[in-house]
Amino acid sequence: MNQPIRRLSFVVALLFASLLVSTTLIQFVWAKDLNARPDNRRTLLSTYARERGQILVGDTAIAKSVPADNEYKWLRTYPQGTAYAHITGYYSFYGAGGGLEQAENGLLSGSSDKLAFRRVSDFFTGRKTVGASLELTIDSAVQAAAVKALDGRKGAAVALNPSTGEILAMVSNPTYDPSGLAGHDLSKVDAAYKALNGNANKPLVNRAIGGDLYPPGSTFKIVTAAAALESGRFAPDTELPGPAVLDLPQTTVGLPNIGKRSCGANDTTTFLHAMEISCNSAFGYLGLQLGADALRDQAAKFGVGDQLSIPMRVTPSTVPADLNQPQLAQAAVGQYDVRVTPLQVAMLSAGVANRGIVMKPHLVRSVLSSDLSVIERAEPQELSKAVSPEVAAQLTEMMEAVVENGSGKPAQVDGVRVAGKTGTAETDRVSRAHAWFTGFAPANDPQIAVAVVVENGGDPDSEARGGGAVGGPIAKAMIEAGLKK
Amino acid sequence: MTTVSALSSRKGRNVELGLLVFAVAIVALAYINVGIAVEGAIPPSLVAVGTGFVVITAAFHITMRLRAPYADPLILPIATLLNGLGLVMINRLDLANGRDLAEGMALRQLMWSALAAGLAIAALIILRDHRILRRYTYLAGAIGFGLLLLPLVPGLGVENYGSRIWINLGPFSFQPGEIAKIVLAVFFAGYLVQTRDALSVAGRRILGLTLPRARDLGPILVAWMLSVGVLVLEKDLGSSLLFFGLFVAMLYVATERTSWVAIGLLLFCVGCWVANLLFSHVQRRVLLWLDTFSREALDTSDQLARGLMGMASGGMVGTGLGRGRPDLTYFAESDFIIPSFGEEIGLIGLFALLILYVLLVERGLRTAIGARDGFGKLLASGLAFSVALQCFVVVGGVTRVIPLTGLTMPFLSQGGSSLLANWTLVALLLRISDHARRPVPDPEAPNPVANEPTQVVKLR
Q1: Residue A204 within a domain
Q2: What is the pTM of this model?
Q3: Which residues form a coiled coil (chain B) (predicted)?
């Protein structure tokens, strides 16, 4: 009987070997994936137990963790609440969501590979590992001005530093209070989240960089104008046809001007004047002359279609492919299926302002350790070259004229040369149009580029009463705040 | 059968004492470790719990010196260490759940340990020779099958979390399968010693295997039907696998014929396959096993998933005793005590625990090889293999090697029936081992009686 007993011991060895393998797989090979699971409560508790980094605007924390007297050890608070909700995002039992809390979770929680060295030194010195803090590029004055000027209306506002790509302000309305999601009372958090998530106005969505995107309306004429000037076939004083309704090939429906007015005597106008009054028929004509490829290429050079992360993921703006002639004319004035984010529209102005160079937009200026020493600093990066400096100068002149003489008058700032473009984007026949304004200032030394959209805020029959009247004052307030006027 | 291994006749009691001191020291350190980690101080209960634990250990050791001086010196220290570490983890979970010593599970576990060790001591004292058990072969068989099927009795058996392997006796609930494991090992050993010649008679050779005659298939078919019955009616794959695996292993040891193993495995696979086709509760277990993290599985039960996440959070070196969150898993102190350990002492610590079980089983199998009688060999190998198989079923269940079942980890898991059964098992192993390692009387030595001028002859 001894022989089978010896063989039985091999079976025993095999059984235990399988257990050694299975435990190794779980605790070593797959451990990282298991720990990263969103439903892993241990990971949640251990991340809650670690002090999360702050999110700073200047010296003020817009998100910080304060000690809590319960098993979670720390409570995440958002002192500025709604004003920065879409920048901070929220940190809840469901994990970090929206905004920087989610996009830079690794740094804020301290688990990022960038902090590996620090964690090792924490381990040996016995120091508690603390998440890294983020210092933002936001200018609190511009942000506050944008929030105040939007005054709760649905829409979004973005301000950029044209020469660096730093995001100076980013507001999306309607907004929410992230503190309501960061509490430790699970049922309250759950109720708050369900209410926000079920809200038809989608307050959790950051409209400045995502959501359903907007038709850009006439702000897209900056792209069409850039393509026209780049082609060398058109100059600001070129005569263009400007009838009340542009006849379109292949269809009986024409491309009408807002208010169905002619853009000049004898149904002709100059390129410059067409820009000033946002003449649809002239720009439709330009689009047809340039062709779909030139228009799409020019849009792409401004960043349309790029996958950007600021570090939040930005939904790429789109110009549809395979445009037929009527669609091309419509796209040239920002209608048809052209869809943009307000950030992209701000990048149009910023590109023109920065002599044709579009800088990569970003929100985080530097990553700071718990003792506020700098771990990483963002360097300005060139995203693309949109137009030549000469064309940029011509576009600047034309956009200055828009604010000085044309539809953008409400954005005028005393003593500052403001360049801009209005937009009134029709969504359907029933609702009011989206009111747009984008621009930059000072035109001779650009320091701030803005884009503003107010949903259903514009009068579809008047560009001046649409984008100019509604968007202009908001842009003006932001420019004034940015230039410390 | 006739093999007699010449084993060392060293008693090894001093080795045992040294190892026991070591085991108690590890347990005490672990206990203090938990106290410091959770409450920041050496736990005041250390004196009470520690004294109880030392008294039990000392009593057992003294019994060993008096009644089983030649027994294997590793078995008792390993069992003591595992039992002690189980106490530490149960106490740790008491603290995590805010139960103090008086109302906690650790104190009850300590009492059960004392009771179980007491029973084992009594068994060692009363049972002077394991061969006496052979007289009760068929009684053991009847009791064993009775115990196995007891949870099916209406009013007595209760279904806990899908498995019907518990019975309620007043304030106590009891897993009769644990005791059945030992009693059935006694039955199988006695039965197979008698019938092994018949079962190992050569049959036809097919594909290199000597297949038994059809009429000799009776016993294995009965065992198989019972195990399938347990699987289907008690809904417990673990008990079924344990019971049938034990039988097949002992049958193989008794007959030395591999064909029995092949037949057994085939039958078992067929049984499982059919059960999976026919019964929804089996399908649910299989779903949880194969697709633990699917939405559907998580909606059924996230226990296994939580255990896995606990183990993963422990990683290589563990969080340290008292520093993890094993209390987030249900049954962290019984069925899922291995994930609890995995979380807090890490993969390295878990390996150490598994090696302790390997050593225990190995000492049992060694005892079987050394035993001088067929019954002892079969019983020791059966008991040792049942421990191995149970470890495999439990740890394999929580680590997704096999579907999860409701068995407990020997010595570690919280639960009275488990402790009683496993300490009794250890007592039997010690008894056989004492017999196996006892020096053989030298036939060459002068027989003092034979030299007497007259002999007293017993007449009756």
Answers
A1: no
A2: 0.69
A3: none
